[in-house]
Amino acid sequence: MSGKRNGFISARSPGLRRPRGVDSPLVYKSDNASEAGVIQLYRIPYLQESESIELLRQVQSKVSATIVGIKTEQCFNIQLGNALTPEKLATLQWLLAETYEPDKLQSGSFLEDEVSRSPYSVIVEVGPRMTFQSAFLTNAVSICNLSLMEVIRLERSKRYLLCLEPGYGPLDENLLNDFAALVHDRMTECVYPNKLTSFHSDVVPKPVHFVPVIERGREALEEINVKMGLAFDEQDIKYYTHLFRDDIKRNPTTVELFDIAQSNSEHSRHWFFNGKLVIDGETMPRTLFQLVKSPLKAQPNNNSVIGFNDNSSAIKGYPANQLRPTTPGSTSPLSIMMRELDILFTAETHNFPCAVAPYPGAETGAGGRIRDTHATGRGSFVVASTAGYCVGNLRIEGSCAPWEDPSFSYPSNLASPLQILIDASDGASDYGNKFGEPLIQGYTRNFGMRLLNGERREWLKPIMFSGGIGQIDHAHISKGDPEIGMLVVKIGGPAYRIGMGGGAASSMVSGPNDAELDFNAVQRGDAEMAQKLYRMVRACAEMGESNPIISIHDQGAGGHCNVMKEIIYPKGAEIDVRSIVVGDHTLSVLEIWGAEYQEQDAFLVKPESRSMLELLCERERVSMAVIGKIDGCGKIVLIDSAAVEHAKLNGLPPPTPVEDLELEKVLGDMPQKTFEFKRVSVVSEP
Q1: In whole angstroms, what is the distance from residue 106 CA to residue 549 CA?
Q2: pTM
Q3: Are strands 600-605 and 487-492 parallel, antiparallel or unpaired?
Q4: 495 and 468 in one domain?
Q5: Which pLDDT tens digit goes with each residue over 254-279?
Q6: How far apart are CA 141 and CA 138, in angstroms?
Q7: Do residues 495 and 483 share a domain?
Q8: Count of H helices and E strands in the chain?
Q9: Is residue 603 left, alpha or beta, with left meaning phi > 0 and alpha meaning psi from -120 to 50?
Q10: CA diameter of the chain
């Protein structure tokens, strides 16, 4: 590290040197051999000129007007298993360089040369956390290793040169933090105070512990409810206190409480729509869901083939000619096959995530809806999508609408309506573009007014709507039931510490939850992994009657907490948490089980189909793990085989399961909730 400049550490390290006698400018050797050779290559620019100008405008208004210019570059941090030959280093340079501008890639920083010439500048570098392997890494490492280079990890960091007005500076730490907050996602990225020499992390996973409900009763649940953001209401507290203290008669683990908070949240179980409504003391004859379903029941011979019982709905289609591979899942000619194809409709909203982090919130809203489409029945086909946004007053600078009240305040933990509209739209479109699903229509609305009775009406918590159409082979419209001996399989991207507690957080009234818990609950998307997963599902669906998928559920809110109970209900299964593929080895058991990392589906398959699925997943380069087996116990039993092995090696008694719950008591026959309201007279005018 060369030292500080203007109060901030510049990332110029003498620790990497070019060996004597080697002409290639890209050959490095680390002074610290134990750090497995992390090298850096730099490419300019990171942002195009128009993007830099827009960023500078934001920085001057939100951080400091003394910042008068911004320049950018990317840094590729590459961890090697072995030193590369000059030929392989040249190949690596070719892979990372822009095709038509190879001179914009070099072994030294472009920006540090400018820092040395200017006393009024500072470099800020942000990139993936040491424990987080980005979506970029998956493909980059795969390409490098196919080129016979032993690359262990390859991550991009973003570097910004802030040019200060002469005579001003240095920027204090608070302003630097404000700038860093603008340009990085604190959930998956961090600030690099100096050049990386290793991706090693000292993070120690948190252990599972018991919550003393037997000893302290509901008080213990109330405490953990606030601490973990579980969104338990009064009826939940009463039910779970009784369940553990009086029925099961043992203390719950933190994993169990987190699990039931996500899978039995309003978001996942729609308690309000299924609840008993009491208005002005009078119990309503039907629930909201019964009202919604009434047209379907009134027309028993209607056009619907799937309604209210799967990830999406479907109407009757037609026999149609469809191009399918002669041998699905392998390189083979396409042939026309006559199949009866029904038409799918899927829709969901991603309101809470888009309020907290608009771009990734909308991105994963689109991704979750895509998975809903392809996880319908026993596997389906994605076609096209729509998107919609409802936000509050935009308050566009210099163009305020007459009804927009400048005195309206907005929650500090939520993005502004204008920012939501811009970033959420970008996120949804970007995900669809990368996945390969066209977004062909959409809408947007904004509104916020003070009514005559003083009430403020506004979309403070925005609506982000994602809808799609698809196709499903009529032979695949019904999922199969779990049977003893069937394998429980997870296919898709690896586990990361993202989307913690989204089911519960999105079920709350906006405001009560801790802002950090809110941000932690937002997922992050990987559209290319979603495409790999979809190609695997599509190959199975194209097999027609030979489709190996018995049942499929996408992993969304609540992570495994929700999807596992859904797919094994009512038979039950024992699941080994250590069988789950992880991309971050510092994850705790609770995080592996509860995080909402995207692009994952759960499957039920027969044992004889295992080798076929493994071949399909190998072809698509997507991970597959058999994590359990249907055993007929009627429970969700989660074991930690690593803890079991540790106890065995140390002569200790075997640990109790991390989770051991009867499905009927936490998923099936649970008591209906009651909601009481009083009618309010509305004062309005045209």
Answers
A1: 49
A2: 0.83
A3: antiparallel
A4: no
A5: 999 999 988 887 767 788 999 999 99
A6: 6
A7: yes
A8: 23, 28
A9: beta
A10: 90
Query: 199 lies in a domain?
Result: no
| Residue 64, SS3 per DSSP | coil
* pLDDT (0 to 100) of residue 522: 52
Q: Which amino acid is at 154?
A: L
Q: Helix (H, G, I), strand (E, B), or coil: what is residue 476?
A: helix
List of residues 6+ apart from 50 with CB closer than 8 A: none
Closest residue by Cα to residue 453 from 192, 617, 671, 682 = 682
Other beta carbons less than 10 A from residue 84's beta carbon = 23
pLDDT digits (tens, 9 = 90+) for 362-419: 888 899 999 999 999 999 999 999 999 999 999 998 888 888 988 898 888 788 999 9
Specify whether 46 is located in the same domain as 185: yes
Handedness of CA 401, 403, 406, 410 (dihedral sign): negative
Asked whether residue 405 is domain-assigned, the answer is yes
Containing structural domain, residue 380: 303-478
Distance CA 77, CA 41 (A): 7
- List phi, psi (to 5°) of 683: -100, 120
Q: What is the pLDDT of residue 524?
A: 66
What integer pLDDT is reported at residue 523 of this predicted model?
A: 56
pLDDT of the residue at 520? 54
β-bridge mates for residue 121, sequence order: 163
**Residue 56 falls inside a structural domain:** yes
**587 & 603 share domain:** yes
Q: Specify whether 483 is located in the same domain as 445.
A: no
Closest alpha carbon to 595 in 615, 580, 574, 579: 580
Strand order in the sheet with 439-446: 304-306, 313-325, 334-349, 463-473, 381-391, 439-446
Residue 337 pairs in a beta bridge with 322
Q: Are the CB atoms for 171 and 64 separated by under 8 Å?
A: yes
Nearest CA to 430 among 496, 524, 534? 524
| 187, two tokens | 């959930």
Tell me the per-residue pLDDT of 298-350, one tens digit each, with 9 for 90 and over: 887 778 999 888 889 999 999 999 999 999 989 999 999 999 999 999 998 88
Per-residue pLDDT, 499: 61
Cα-trace Rg, the chain: 27
3-class SS at 58? helix
What's the pLDDT at 639? 97
| Beta carbons within 10 angstroms of residue 440's beta carbon | 13
Task: Tell me the two tokens of residue 615.
Answer: 């071949």
**Are 422 and 294 members of one domain?**
no
313: region left, alpha or beta (phi > 0 left; psi from -120 to 50 alpha): beta
Same domain, 563 and 681: yes
What interhelical angle do 560-568 and 254-263 show, nearest 10?
70
- CATH assignment at residue 329: 3.30.1330.10
Residue 197 maps to a domain: no
- Position 8: which residue type? F
If one counts every other C-beta atom within 10 angstroms of the C-beta of residue 624, the result is 19
Token pair 């573009």 is at which residue?
433
Instruction: Evaluate whether 240 touches 260 at the Cβ level (below 8 Å).
Output: yes
Q: How far apart are CA 391 and CA 620, in angstroms?
A: 39
Number of domains in the chain: 3
Q: Residues of the chain whose pLDDT is less than 50?
A: 1-36, 501-515, 517-519
Q: Do 595 and 524 touch, CB atoms closer than 8 A?
A: no
Which pLDDT belongs to residue 17? 28
Q: Residues 173, 101: contact at Cβ < 8 Å?
A: no
| Cβ contact 650:513 at 8 Å | no
Question: How much is the mean pLDDT over the chain?
Answer: 86
